[in-house]
Amino acid sequence: MRRGARWFAALMISPTLLVLALVVIYPLLSAARESMYVRGEGLDADGFVIEGERFVGLANYAGLVGERFVNAFANTTVFTLATVALETVLGVAMALVMHGVLRGRGLVRASILIPWAVPTAISGLMWRWVFQADGVANAIIGEKILWTTEGVQAKLAVIIADTWKTAPFVGLLVLAGLQIIPTMVYEAAKVDGASAWQTFWRITLPLVKPALVVAVLFRILDALAMFDLPFVMIGRGKFSVETLSALVWDEATQLRYGPAAAYGIVLVAYIAAIVFVFVRLLGADLLADARSRKGQA
C-alpha cells in the first residue's frame, strides 16, 4: 500500500477511533483511577468525616475475596452458562421452525419474536406476576413455591424468564444464516439418501455456524452484564440473584465509588477474557473453514 493510501485510510478511521477513545478508553481509565481512591470515608483525629478523596492503592480490590463478590461472580457465571446454553438450543429450534413453515410464515415469525421486542423491565414485571405465590407457575405445577424469595428457585425463575425473552434473538440471527444456504445443497443431500438428522448435523449446522457464533457471542456479552431482569423480578440486594453489575450499582448508590469502580474493572476484565477465549477458539475455526472453502472453490 502506498504511503498516501495509508494516510487516507488512517484519516477515514480516525473519527471512529476518536469516538472509541471518548466512550470506551477514557471511562475505563477514569474507572481505573477511581478504583484506587476513596471519598468521604473514615474520620480524622478530631472525629470529623474526611472530605475529598484519599489514595488507597489496591485496597478497594480487597473486596474481591469477600463473600458478596464471590457470590455475585458465581451468580453471573451460572446465569451466563445456563441462559446462553438454553437460548442457543431453543434459538436454533425457533430458526428451523421459522425457516421451514410455509403457510402463515409471517404470523409464526412475529409470534416467536414478540418476547424479544418486550422491554426487559416490562418482561421482568410480567414474570414476577407469573412467579407470585398465587401466580400461574404455582397453579401449573400444583405447588406453593416462593419463587421471588432467597433460594435456588429464584435463580431458576430468572433463568426461565431470560431464556423466554432472548432465545428469539438467537433464532433471528440463525434464521438469517439459514436463508443464505442454497436449496440445491439440501436437494443433493436428499438424493444421497441423507436423513433429517444427518442433513441438520452435516449440512445445516456447519453452514449456519458463522451466524450462530455471532449470536452466542452477543448473548454472552449481554448475559455477563445482566442487571435489570433480576432487579425487577426478585428485587434489590437479593443474595441468590445478585450479579456483578448489580453489585457495582449497589456500591455506587451507597456512594462507595472506589469499590464500585474496582468491581467494575474486574467485570470488564472478566468479559474481555471470555470474549478473547471465545474468539480465539471459534473465530480461528471459522477462518480456517473460510480458507478451506475458498481453496476448494
Question: What can you see in these coordinates?
Answer:
Its main location: membrane. It is found in: Cell membrane. It is a multi-pass membrane protein. The chain is mainly α. The protein has a two-stranded antiparallel ribbon with strand order 1-2. It has eleven helices and two strands, in the order αββαααααααααα. Helix 8 runs antiparallel to helix 11. The chain has a single domain, classed as MetI-like fold, CATH 1.10.3720.10.
Our Rg estimate from Cα atoms comes to 24 Å
Main sheet: strand order: 1-2
Give the mean pLDDT: 86
CATH topology: the name is MetI-like fold
Transmembrane segments: 7-29, 78-98, 110-130, 200-221, 260-283
Pfam families: BPD_transp_1
Protein name: Sugar ABC transporter permease
Subcellular location: Cell membrane
Summarize the structure.
It holds the Pfam family BPD_transp_1. With 297 residues, this protein is mainly α.
Task: Please name the defining characteristics of this protein.
297 residues; mainly alpha; MetI-like fold; two-stranded antiparallel ribbon; 2 strands; cell membrane; transmembrane helix
Itemize the secondary structure elements and their pairings:
Elements: H1 3-34, E1 37-39, E2 53-55, H2 67-100, H3 105-117, H4 120-130, H5 136-141, H6 152-178, H7 183-191, H8 196-224, H9 228-233, H10 244-253, H11 257-296
Antiparallel strand pairs: 1-2
Helix pairs in contact: 1-11, 2-3, 2-6, 2-8, 3-6, 6-8, 8-11, 10-11
Keywords: Cell membrane, Membrane, Transmembrane, Transmembrane helix, Transport
Family: Belongs to the binding-protein-dependent transport system permease family.
Domain ABC transmembrane type-1: 73-278
